[in-house]
Design brief:
Layout lengths: L7 H14 L3 H7 L9 E6 L2 E7 L3 H8 L3 E9 L3 E5 L19 E5 L4 E5 L9 E8 L11 E7 L2
Antiparallel strand pairs: 1-2, 1-8, 2-7, 3-4, 3-8, 4-6, 5-6, 5-7
């Protein structure tokens, strides 16, 4: 039986290589979101506008991704800080729990109503809210008032 001794340099080198190989790792880490190798990007389109979002690496986001593509949904205004859309089925709640770093552009799932919440202005975490991801770049399309057909597809 042969044993190989692994030193700290080897472990560090492996960790650095796997971090740079993860898709969207730089984008996610610069925003402070926990992303893993399973992260993926989605396209969100309504009212002739398209935005890209990077999903979190959590069970709820993976369940959401398994439903793609989503067509025939409607997106509408809710309160003064978000747009919402109802999903065809409930998502797993395994990704639930308090999270920090809430900011405009977050894509969340609200468990009690079974809807997506796309925040365009500030908000605070509340019971039943699960962050699924964050819109990459500009999300001005969320500021357009009204109800529109919505399409969400995988970009990965």
């Amino acid at each position: 039986m042969t044993f190989r001794i692994i030193d700290r340099r080897t472990v560090l080198r492996s960790a650095l290589l796997s971090a740079t190989a993860a898709p969207f790792g730089d984008l996610a880490s610069s925003r402070g979101y926990a992303q893993g190798p399973a992260s993926m990007r989605v396209g969100i389109s309504f009212n002739e506008q398209t935005m890209a979002a990077t999903l979190e690496d959590n069970p709820s986001a993976r369940d959401f991704a398994s439903m793609l593509p989503l067509v025939g949904l409607k997106i509408d205004d809710y309160a003064n800080n978000e747009k919402i859309s109802y999903l065809p089925r409930k998502l797993t709640e395994e990704g639930s729990g308090p999270f920090g770093n809430e900011r405009p552009g977050d894509l969340c799932y609200y468990v009690p109503w079974g809807n997506l919440a796309l925040f365009h202005t500030g908000y605070r975490w509340s019971q039943g809210l699960i962050r699924l991801g964050h819109i990459d770049g500009n999300f001005d399309a969320l500021l357009m008032r009204g109800k529109f057909p919505l399409r969400i597809v995988s970009l990965s």
